[in-house]
Amino acid sequence: MNLADGASIKDNKKDDYMNQVLQLMDRFSDSDMTKLQVEVEGFKVSLQRETKEMIEVAHAGQLKTVDMVPINQTQIVSVNPETIECTTSNHEKQVKAPLVGTFYSSNEPGGKPFVSVGDTVKKGQPLCIIEAMKVMNEIESPYEGVVKEIKVQNEEAVGFDQLLMILE
Amino acid sequence: MLRKILIANRGEIAVRIIRACKEMGIETVAIFSTADHRGLHVDLADEAICVGSARVQDSYLNMNNILSAAVATGCDAIHPGFGFLSENSTFAALTEELGLKFIGPKGTVIDHMGNKSKAREMMIEAGIPVVPGSDGLVQTIKQGKEIASQIGYPVLVKASAGGGGRGMRIIRNEEEFADLFQTAKLEAKMAFGDDSMYLEKFIENPRHIEFQILADQFGNVIHLFDRDCSVQRRNQKVIEEAPSPVLDAKTRDKMGEIAVRAAKTVGYENAGTIEFLLDKHHNFYFIEMNTRIQVEHPITEMITGIDLIKEQIKIASGQPLAFKQVDVKISGHAMECRINAENPSQNFKPSPGQIVTLNIPSGLGVRVDTSVYQGYHIPPFYDSMVGKLIVHGLDRQEAIAKMKRSLEELVVEGIETNIDFQYAIMEHPKFIENDYDTSFIQKHMHELEVI
Fold first, then answer.
1. Given Cys at both, which of A89, B102, B185, B307 links B92, Cβ 3.0 to 4.6 Å?
2. Which residue range is the domain that position B42 belongs to?
3. Which residue, of B168, B201, B234, is where some domain finishes?
4. Does B64 touch chain A if contact means CB atoms closer than 8 Å?
5. Between B34, B48, B66, which is nearest A161 by CB?
6. What element of type H or E holds A11?
7. Do residue A132 and residue B52 have CB atoms under 8 angstroms apart?
8. B37 domain-assigned
9. B388 and B242 inside one domain
10. Do A157 and B73 count as a contact with CB atoms less than 8 A apart?
11. Are residues B329 and B431 in the same domain?
C-alpha cells in the first residue's frame, strides 16, 4: 500500500487507519464490488478487482456466455483523493423470459413454488412457468447455481427478455 | 365502455391511441421491441411489455407474443393502429377468438377488402363505378396481354394482396408487358407473400381522393368527407389536404353517398376509408378500401371536429354513432405534411440517428402528431416517419400560410429530414394554384430540389 506523496500521518492514528483498511479489504473481498475508493483525512485507499464484465444470459436452456473471467484476484491499486465510489459486478447469471405471458412461481395455484431464494438448482431444473395462450411453458434453469433473487411476482405479466431471476 | 386496451403498434400512432384512451379513462398497455424500449409510447402507457427483438417479424408482427401480452395484462381489446397487423384478418380473428375486441372490422371483411381483386368484384356487383380492368385475377402473361389490349394501354398491373404502392407497375405498351408483369409479381411475392395480380386501366395523372367512413355495430354508416392525397412520391403520400380543393358540392355528395354504400355492401364496422381516382373529366372510380385508421386521419378531424380514434373506441364498445350524416359539417381547410427522416438530395435515403435538437411549432390551428423528443434515437428497423405536421385554417390559403410558418419553426437537427422539401412544395405555384395531380412531384422534381 502506498501512502500519498507528502502525506504525514501521526503514528497513533496510523494503526486505526490500518485496521480500518484491513477491514475494508475483507469486506471488499467478500462483496460483489469491483471498485472501492475511500478518502479519510488525507489517507486514501483504492481497491479494485481485475475483472471483465461477465454476464451469462440464458433463454430457456440456450446458454450464451459473454466473457467469463475468474474473479478471485484482488489487487490493491494506487492511492488517490476520490470520493467513495461503489460499483456492483456483473458476474451474475441472469435468467430472462424467452416468451411473453404470465409468470407462475409454482405449477398449482397456492402450491409450493418451484424455487425460493437460497435454493441450489441444477442445470435443467424447472424454475417457473410462463403461461402463453393457455400453454404452460416450464422454464428450465440454464445453469447450476443458487437462486439469489426472484425479480417477478406470481401471476405477473412478463415480456420478452424480461429478467426473471438472478442466480449465482 | 372498453376498460383496458393493448395498442399493437409503435411510434406516433401508438401515442395517438394512448392519448385518446387516457382522455376516456381507459387503461393502456403498450408493446415494444427491444429496439424500442425508449419509445415515447412506452413511457406514456400505463403498462408496457416487450414482445420481441428488433425485427418486425419478431415483435410487431409477432401475433403470438402480442396476443399473449394482451391476455397476460388483462386487456379487453386490441387497437392495431395502421400497418403491421391492422389489416391481417388472421390476427383480427384470433383476437376475437381469445375473447378480446379487435378495434376494427371483422376478419372476414378485412379478408374481402384486402383482396383487391375481390373487392373490385364486390363493388361492381353493388353498382359502384370501378376503374376498367380485368375480371378477377390475371393468371398468365398471354391472358394479361389480351385484357390489356381490350382495356387499352397504358395499364396498371397491381398486386391483389397489395397496398402502400408496392407490387404495382405501369405498362405502357405490349412490348414491355411481360417484363414488368413479372417484376411486379415478384415484388408482390416478397412484400405480401402473395403474387396474385390483376389489371386496371392506368388513369393518367388522376387525383387521389378518399372518403373517411364510420360504421357502428348497428348498421349506421356515415362519411366524414374527403381527403385529397395527390401529392405523392412513388405511390407514397407526402402531403394530404381536406377537403379536396377540386370537388364541387354535387360531386362530393355523390362520392360520399357511394362511399357509404360501399361500406354497407361489405358489412363494414368501425373506421375505414374508400379510395377513389378522379380523372381529368371528373369521373371518379373506386380503387380500394382501407380497413383501418389511416396516417392522414388528423386532417379529417380538423375539419369536422370529430376525434376519430375515440369514435373507433366507442364503436368497438358497442355504442351507436352519436351523430347522423346531416350533423357532420366541413369547417375550414386542413393540410398535413409527413415529416420523414430521409435525405431528399440523396434520393430520399432513410436517415436514422439521434435527434440532437428539436423544436415543435405551435399556435392556433397547428398540430404536431409525433413520438420523437429531443435526444431520441430513431431506430433503423422501422419506417422513417418523424411526425406529422397538421394545420387548419379558415381556407386553403390560410392553411398554406400556416404550414409554411410552421415548417419554418420546425427544427429537427441530428438527422436529415424532408422539411425543406415540403416547404418547396408549399411555395410551388402549381401547388398553390391547385393545379396538381399524382404526377406533381415527379414532374417538378427539379424545381423542388433543395440544396
1. B102
2. 4-103
3. B201
4. yes
5. B34
6. helix A11-30
7. no
8. yes
9. yes
10. yes
11. yes
CA–CA gap between residue A48 and residue B154 (Å, rounded): 76
Has residue B444 been placed in a domain? yes
Annotated active-site residue B338? The verdict is: no
Q: What is the pTM of this model?
A: 0.80
Per-residue pLDDT of chain B (451 residues; tens, 9 = 90+): 999 999 999 999 999 999 999 999 999 999 999 999 999 999 999 999 999 999 999 999 999 999 999 999 999 999 999 999 999 999 999 999 999 999 999 999 999 998 888 899 999 999 999 999 998 899 999 999 999 999 999 999 999 987 767 789 999 999 999 999 999 998 888 888 889 999 999 998 899 999 999 999 999 999 999 999 999 998 889 999 999 999 999 999 999 999 999 999 999 999 999 999 999 889 999 999 999 999 999 999 999 999 999 999 999 999 999 999 999 999 999 999 999 999 999 989 999 999 999 999 999 999 999 999 999 999 999 989 999 999 999 999 999 999 999 999 999 999 999 999 999 999 999 999 999 999 999 999 999 987 5
SS3 per residue for A114-131: CCCCCCEECCCCEEEEEE
Does B8 lie at the interface with A, CB-CB under 8 angstroms?
A: no
Number of domains making up chain B: 3
Q: With CB atoms and an 8 Å threshold, state whether B50 touches A157.
A: no
- For the CA atoms of B122, B123, B125, B129, the dihedral, rounded to the nearest 10 degrees, stands at -160
* CB contact (8 A) between residue A133 and residue B50: no
Same domain, B336 and B259: yes
Please report whether residue B109 resides in a domain: no
Q: Which of B16, B120, B292, B367 is catalytic?
A: B292
How many beta-carbon contacts under 8 Å exist across A and B?
Answer: 52
Does one domain contain both B269 and B417? yes
Same domain (yes/no): B279, B217: yes
Q: What CATH number is given for A93-167 in this structure?
A: 2.40.50.100
Give contacts of B 386-405 with A, CB under 8 A: none
